[in-house]
Amino acid sequence: MLAQCLAGTKILDLTQYIPGPFATLWLADLGAEVVKVEPPAGDPMRTLGPTDADGTTAFYKLANRGKVVVRLDLKTDLGREVLAGLLRAADVLVEAYRPGVLDRLGFGAEELARLNPTLIHCSLSGYGQTGPLASAAGHDLTYVALSGGVAASGIAERPVMTFPPLADHAGAMLTVQAVLAALLRRGRTGKGARLDVSLSEAALSWMGGILTTGHRGESTRREADIINGGAAYYRLYRTADGRFVALAAIEDKFWRAFCRTVGHEEWIHRQNEPAPQTDLIARLEALFLTRDRDAWVALLGPADCCFEPVLDPAEVPRHPHWRARGVVRVAEDGDDVVEVPLPIFLDGAAPGRRRPLREDDARAVLGAWRS
């Protein structure tokens, strides 16, 4: 089972909002025991947005399933004493303070090394622990803007915001990779680790192609290149009922299958026209407006031409492929959330279900970790 991979690994999570909680969520899916430490007022994500009847957002519940949540005031001696005890017993610390905050709380690098020489300490921040922006405030939008990703995304007239937040989730993935690599190294050498993971650099790591284009003096033109809307065969189209479909017929055989199925074989030779393929795009736009979305699905689905409907979020859990794979699930424990567990099939087994987060007293958790 997937949940056996990190069984026995104790992870201390001092993060809030999206990136850190998602990283430790996936580590919990792998079997780690995650204790999330929140300030007395709780993680702000508890109330950021529409809340359920219990006063907590569904997003907070989703990001922290499978964890034990405790509250500590790290500005008090008692709070710091309990945290020190948890750090002594932990394998991994994931924190998302700005550089210098942990030092001011009394848990700088030297103190962490004294408490736990084999600790893997992952600092997850906006811009990294060094550099001119190390202490600057930021959020996903500013991180992706600085990476070049915002400039390259959107329609011809203007860039658009990415959603779900790109840097936040890329940073969560990078954190998981870094922690797993450090655990492997510790297993070989016995050494702890100091990991510096930056959300802006997580987004930046996806931008090599865009940066190369700029380096060569070429512009990344929105809706003008092959896979950003400039090609008729790789584009979103509106249908007669105001919904949308996605066509991604990059390979010749898929484009031929599409053209033959819609009765326009005269378009086959036009696939490699220079982008933006303004005339051909206009013809496909007019074509797709002649039928409703689901009518196009019925026609083009069997054609095997890289075509799918653009699903509304409410439709996704009902899609037969996701249902067959078992990776989109409505929780059965009262949270009334739709969760996507870490989608890794280990030895043919589907990922397991997550339990709801559990709140506990910090000292009780410390006692359990010491035993």
Topology:
Elements: E1 10-14, H1 19-29, E2 33-38, H2 58-63, E3 68-71, H3 77-89, E4 92-95, H4 101-104, H5 109-115, E5 120-125, H6 140-147, E6 154-155, E7 158-159, H7 166-189, E8 193-198, H8 199-204, H9 208-215, H10 226-230, E9 234-238, E10 244-248, H11 252-261, H12 278-288, H13 293-300, E11 307-309, H14 320-325, E12 329-330, E13 338-339, E14 358-359, H15 362-370
Parallel strand pairs: 1-2, 1-4, 2-3, 3-14, 4-5, 5-8
Antiparallel strand pairs: 6-7, 9-10, 10-11, 12-13
Helix pairs in contact: 1-7, 3-15
Overview of the structural elements:
The relative contact order is 0.12. The protein has a 7-stranded parallel sheet with strand order 8-5-4-1-2-3-14, sandwiched between helices. A 3-stranded antiparallel sheet has the order 9-10-11. The model has no long low-confidence stretch (mean pLDDT 96). Helix 1 links the parallel strand 1 and strand 2. It starts with 9 loop residues before the first strand and ends with a helix. Helix 1 packs across helix 7. The protein is an alpha/beta fold. The chain is built from 15 helices and 14 strands.
